[in-house]
Amino acid sequence: MSTDSKTSLLSYEKQALMDLLTDDCLVVLGEGITYQNILLSYLESYSDPGTLLLAVECPEEMEEWLLERLTLSETAVVPPKKVTSEIHVEKRTDHYLQGGVQFISKRILVIDLLCKRIPTELITGIVFFNAHYVRDTSIETFISRLYRTDNKTGFIKAFSTNPIQLNKVNQAETCMRHLFLPRIHLWPRFHANISECIEKHKCEVVELHIPLTDVMKNLQMCIIDLLHFCMKEVKKHIPSLDSDFFVVENAVGKDYFRSLKKVLNPIWSHLGPNTKQLVQDIKIISQLNNQLLQCSAVRFYEVVHKLKPTGASRSSNVCLWMFTEAFGRLLSLSKERVEQKEAEKIELSPKWEAIQEILSEIKAENKNGPPKNTLFCVSSYATAKQIVKFIKYGEVSTLAEELLSTQRPQKDLQADIPPSEETEDSRTTFGLEESHNIRFLVEKKYTMIQEYLTSLNPTYVILHDPDLFMVRSLEMFRCRRPGKPLRIYFLVYDNSIEEQRYLTQLSEEKKAFEQLIMMKGNMTVYTDQDGREGTNAMLERGHQGLKFKDLESQDSRQNHAKSFPKVVVDMRDFRSSLPSILHKSGMDLIPKTIEIGDYILTPDICIERKSIVDLIGSLASGRLFQQCQAMCNTYKHPMLLIEFDEANGFSLQNYSGVTDAVVTSSLQTQLTLITLHFPKLRMIWSQSEYTTASIFHELKKGKEDPDVGAIETVSKESSIISSEFNHSVVNTLLQLPGVTSKNYFLLARKFANILEISKTSQERLSEVLQNKEEGRALFEFFNQVENKSKPDD
Amino acid sequence: KAEISQNSSAAVIVSTRQRGNPLLPHMRNVIVTYRDDILPDYVLGANTCAIFLSLKYHRLHPDYIYERLRQLGKGYIVRILLLQVDIPDSAICIEELTKVALLSSLTLMLAWSPAEAARYLEAFKIYENKPPEVLQGIKDTSYQGHLNGFLTSIRGVNKTDVARLKSEFGTVKDIVQADKGRLSALPGIGEKKAGRIHELFRQPFRNL
User: Which of B29, B135, B172 sits opposite A619 (nearest CB)?
Assistant: First the structure.
């Protein structure tokens, strides 16, 4: 680890690594505090054939990076491996037995644990990611339970980079209990080790507080007034809503709309059309805020102008707020801002002037030296494009050109990026010549931001929009390159909504960490929380673990003391949380790829499970009809399980409103038709997976277990797509014109993949399909340039 | 039986005991006639009938439904138990009635308002003899229809993405051949989605 080629660990990383090596723990890091180096060193020490460490559902980019690094590592005795579905099930066990660090998806792991393809007792440890999402119904929870039942010595570690989520309703404790973690380690930015480190390698920060122009101030006021107005209206309609939702300061936050929608979802069907419209309007108005700060005066005017009630389109749903004085002012102010005869008089974005100064300052500094890189961090592609234009042509002509482009369709704006040879490079330069030494980074939470920054190698960074993640990432970046200077220009509009938002972001994270620290101090950790010995309640199975207690549970548990009832579960359904809950409630699961139904409870009972979204989709595509037909032909008691989602409320009307007439497009009518066509089919309406589990137990009471052998023969005969082929790809293939269930295999046998078909000539396609017409249809579909419909405004 | 032959009328036959049910004023799309000699609450076709139950009522009179079902016997092919969910904590009630419905060969339908309940009853009558085409998913065979079908069959891709891909690339061939970077640079298509699109076009048809 001491060799130069390897990244040496910072002091906090060393400490975190020590923690990681000693405990079963949850590691929580602040926004932008990186942990990939800790993880790399940690995994290196387990890259040994004598161990088996499983990294479950590692974030994609990080997994790639770790795979590469571990392969090159000198310390690692065996190279890392990836477990994929391509490794045949019969070879899986051997694969696991090779040991070392193995990356795996949670679905494959849970199935292999259930099928005993993985030697559970030999696993040295498991590492989880994104632990802040772990709930009772998560697959991670299921995995931990299966693992701890058969393995009392291996370890479990989990990472999270979202303290705010973890701080919500006991989420941290819930997660720790479900993953059998007795300890939590917190790494906020204000942790002594981290702040010391950053203090030691300080960035040079130039904070530029840019005042808004008077017009912008006024526009911002108008927008806030409009928000006030709409919120007051919503409050009138839904008095029961938490008053937090009516504070304008909250409404400018990034996630405001999402959380509002989340609260409203369960009661969505009870809201009138006006209220629904208002909620949508709040979203539109709060977006205006961003647009005011991000867009040029011209583009902003365009946006506002489009909102104006335009006779036909909006008359049916007229929004009251459009008739307020504030909206009138918004319209006239944004119009005044651009309605100047000469482009020179049009108000410029104040940040542009700052950028101009910064750029000339940088230029002056580097007159004689070697070129140094400048990095722009912006919040959107549109902003990046605007800045590119601005740098290329200077401000006035940029605006003049934009003025013109508002009269023409928007297309011109996009033409700026070279369309074809889009390489990694042009993605970051946005078509700006190499000689500028300017790169762009569009705000996004890159998992591997540090690597990315290293490759861009900036000396100057211009943070166009305040963003906590970027600030932190840059601080960390600086720490990792002692001696190399880094200057950050931090641009923020004074007294603006973006400033407010940034400060809120900071304080929210701080608050979350402070509360987590408190919780850590007061938390009750049970002596058997790690599940290694004694009787941890989490490891118990049976009815009493269910939400809805069953009076007969004691009884049935004694009867089935050793053997639980068995259920066959379709592999694909392991994405959902029902299998986990069934298992916990005392059923043994047999994972299988089955063609008909998702769950086979008894030789006679077959269940097709549909979430509401699936239900709507499969009714529309006709798949449900086929599935019901197959079930009814094969099983004595076919059932359709309609499973609602607790977050969205238990009511079909939430998804499909009640019309005055009977129309075939409504969900209710389509369910009626299904019932009429399949009188044998029974419906199960379930409010949650727990209810479903309870009903399954009821259905299985006193019945035989399904005959696994019989199911297999069923699946082979009735499959539409031959098992020779990959289902998901063939499903896509079947969507193409000229391709039917009777000829798809001709293509699938002759060609490797869809890419290859797309490159094939019409003659060859007709030859393979043995049909001229079908070949032509297919060829034309790939090559035809459809006339674009006119833009609708 | 005499009753069944009379049922094949154009109207929904409503048992007189249903009078006063708040769903009845919502029955506007079918003719309603009242009779006092039918076993179910609603006769919706030659072989179709429904029993109505409000959960509120069921909680007060838990024995009622058992008695009704006993009386109903085994007649009719499509047998509906139409529940109106009008209590807040309905889980346990519905669980019980699911079991009841299975044992008595009834199909459970849930409505959350009188209007929704009425719409179910009307739909059963109106579509009594409707062929299943609507359910078999009539394919949109236009270029756009195929395009939507093709691209939305990839997990996570929606129609907005389809429009964006199309306008960015021009031909389907170009979409199929696009590299991951260019796909993920499109607004609305993140790295994950771009990865899935890119991968699917390159995934071999054959299982190894």
Answer: B135
What is the Rg, in whole angstroms, of the alpha carbon atoms belonging to chain A? Answer: 30
Q: Which of B107, B129, B154, B157 has the most A C-beta neighbours within 10 Å, making it the best mutation to test the interface with A?
A: B107
pLDDT in tens, A269-287: 677 777 888 888 888 888 8
Q: Do B135 and A624 touch (CB under 8 A)?
A: yes
For the record, the structure tokens of A464 come out as 């166009």
- How many helices (H) and strands (E) chain A has is answered by 36, 18
What's CA A441's distance to the chain center, in Å? 20
User: Binning pLDDT at 50, 70 and 90, where does residue A536 land?
Assistant: confident
Residue A670: its chain B contacts at CB < 8 A? 134-135
Indicate the burial class of A785 (C-beta count within 10 angstroms; 0-12, 13-18, 19 or more). Answer: exposed
CB pairs under 8 A between A and B: 211
Pairing of strands B42-43, B12-15: antiparallel
> Strands B48-54 and B42-43: what pairing?
antiparallel
Compute φ and ψ for A735, nearest 5 degrees.
-80, -15
Whether A686 and A692 have beta carbons less than 8 Å apart is answered as yes
**Residues in chain A, how many?**
793
Q: Considering just the CA atoms, what is the radius of gyration of chain B in Å?
A: 25
A622:B137 CB<8 A? yes
pLDDT of residue A766: 92
SS3 B81: strand
The DSSP letter of residue A213 is: P
pLDDT band at A788 (very low <50, low <70, confident <90, very high): very low
Which residues of A are less than 8 Å from B165 in CB distance? none
Question: Dmax over Cα atoms in chain A, in whole Å?
Answer: 88
> Angle, nearest 10°, between helix axes B143-152 and B159-169?
110
Residues 70-99 of B with CB under 8 A from A: 77-80, 85, 90-92, 94-95, 98-99
Taking only residues 19 to 58 of chain B, the set having a beta carbon closer than 8 angstroms to any beta carbon of chain A reads: 28-29, 47-48
B142 close contact with A: CB closer than 8 A: no
Residues within 8 A of A (CB atoms), B 102-131 only: 102, 107-110, 112-113, 115-116, 119-120, 122-124, 126-128, 130
**pLDDT for A585-632, tens place per residue?**
999 999 988 888 999 999 999 999 999 888 988 887 788 988 998 899
Q: Per residue in A628-641, pLDDT tens?
A: 988 998 899 999 99
Contacts of A401 (CB under 8 A, 6+ apart): A389, A393
Which residues in chain B touch residue A658, judged by CB atoms under 8 angstroms apart? 113, 115-116, 119
ipTM of the complex: 0.74
Q: Is B188 left (phi over 0), alpha (psi -120 to 50) or beta?
A: left
Answer whether residue A417 shows pLDDT above 90. Answer: no
Q: How far is CA A138 from CA A161, A178, A648, B156, in A?
A: 18, 9, 18, 21
What's the whole-number mean pLDDT along residues A392-398?
Answer: 64
Q: Residue A531: left if φ>0, alpha if ψ -120 to 50, beta else—which one?
A: left
Q: Please count the other Cβ atoms lying within 10 Å of the Cβ belonging to residue A486.
A: 20
Using CA atoms, how far apart are residues B75 and B105, in angstroms rounded to an integer? 10
Instruction: Note whether A640 and A672 are within 8 A (CB).
Output: no
Band of pLDDT at residue A192, cut at 50, 70 and 90:
very high
Please count the other Cβ atoms lying within 10 Å of the Cβ belonging to residue A275: 18
Yes or no: say if A58 and A66 are a contact pair by the CB < 8 Å rule: yes
Q: What CA–CA distances, in Å, run from B162 to A148, A410, A728, B197?
A: 45, 19, 18, 11
Residue appearing with tokens 């004689």:
A368
